[in-house]
Amino acid sequence: MPVFCAALTPRPHGAVSTGLRAKELKMIKPSIGRVVWFQPEHAHGAPERDQPHAALIVYVWGDRMVNLVVFNQNGMLFAAYSVTLLQDGDPIPPHDRYAQWMPSVQRTPCRRR
Hints:
Helix content is about 0%, strand content about 30%. It has about 110 residues and is mainly beta. Strands 4-3-2-1-5 form a 5-stranded antiparallel sheet, with no helix packed on it. A hairpin with a 5-residue loop joins β3 and β4.
């Protein structure tokens, strides 16, 4: 039986959830070169962004912390250091910046090493 990675469905104001049973949930291991979505800090009173920024993982601190190179809405690059990477079931921070897996990372079989 294959081992499945958790499917992550980003939600603007809630937790990331897959609907999978608890024993099927697996943490997705970040690695250099993977694409994620980046949400910058949300200042109190500022309008919310309607779309995340595309970003590449350039350094992995751990399963929940990465450095990114981020493409803004004009295609310009900037660096984001020590960014929280949300995993399945993590609550979305209301004002802090974070990264999350793209929705295309859906119940794909994980490679066994």
